[in-house]
Amino acid sequence: MVQHLKFCKEIGLKGRILVATEGINGTVSGTVEQTDQYMKLMKEDSRFSDMVFKIDASETHAFKKMHVRHRKELVTLRLDDDLDPTEVTGKYLEPKQFFETMNNPETIVIDARNDYEYDLGHFRGAIRPDIEAFRELPNWIRENRNKFEGKKILTYCTGGIRCEKFSGWLIKEGFEDVAQLHGGIVTYGKDPEVQGQLWDGQCYVFDERISVPINHKKHVIVGKDYFTGEPCERYVNCANPECNKQILCSEENEHKHLRGCSHECRVHPRNRYVEEHGLTEEHILERLKQLNKEALMNPR
């Protein structure tokens, strides 16, 4: 890992790479020359000669620093029995196959991502598991098992990594007809034939970009402003560092609510919005007073 990090820094890459016994996964950003150099190095290693790289254009670096870290699992399910996706995983469907299968009325589509990812964008009609972290997915499936029994199950995630493990787990749990989107949402959006159809909203990504477009036929906004419920695709983190909850929020509402997702977060002594804008106690009280006034005039 030390050598890998050293090489990445030497050629000027920034990003996040995770290394585990089951493999390697990550995202890096750099110039075309820098990323080509990285891919060449990886493919020269026999262990990674058939590695698939997903390439996306960006005007600037998508990360601030370069990290290479060891993890017990690339994606965390925390199962009692370890699950190796190289031994058992769901059937791979290419974008066109996935698109066609979604249109089958006997198909159940399960989003394998977190709730805040789903809320920004998802496949039309996909089931939204009520989870905040991937490791919560197995318990959610067990609690709702009767909804999926005997159905053809499709699952998807951002780049396909989580689904390799999740679809394999579904098979071990006794679900017989399980398939996954090969290459994930990002690959689906780049397919020249499908062009992202049946995807609504944006795709959440774990870097400085926050989101990327997928449907190149018709863009539909599904995200809703945390405070007003109006269409919104702008994510911010709650200004309370002890909360840090991600919320969809317009610039206007960010300023109005001091970027706090609750009253407690707005008045938190370490509110980052207050610090960033140098607001005085008088300014804060004035905004809170205005919020109270609006709440009385427009009770929900």
Automatic annotation (TrEMBL):
Instruction: Write down the EC number.
Output: 1.14.-.-
List residues of the Rhodanese domain. Answer: 103-197
What chemistry does it catalyse, as a reaction equation?
uridine(34) in tRNA + AH2 + O2 = 5-hydroxyuridine(34) in tRNA + A + H2O
Q: Which InterPro entries match?
A: Rhodanese-like_dom, Rhodanese-like_dom_sf, Rhodanese_C, TrhO, TRHO_N
Q: Which Gene3D superfamilies is this protein grouped with? A: 3.30.70.100, Rhodanese-like domain
Biological process terms from the Gene Ontology for this record are:
tRNA modification
Write down the top EC class of this protein: oxidoreductase
Q: Which CDD domains match?
A: RHOD_YceA
- Keywords associated with the record: Oxidoreductase, tRNA processing
Superkingdom = Bacteria
SMART domains (UniProt xref): RHOD
Pfam family example for this protein?
A: UPF0176_N
Which Gene Ontology molecular-function terms are recorded?
Answer: oxidoreductase activity, acting on paired donors, with incorporation or reduction of molecular oxygen
The protein's job, in short, is: Catalyzes oxygen-dependent 5-hydroxyuridine (ho5U) modification at position 34 in tRNAs.
* Family, per entry: Belongs to the TrhO family.
Q: What is this protein called?
A: tRNA uridine(34) hydroxylase
Give the organism the record lists: Bacillus mycoides
Question: Which taxonomic lineage is given here?
Answer: Bacteria, Bacillati, Bacillota, Bacilli, Bacillales
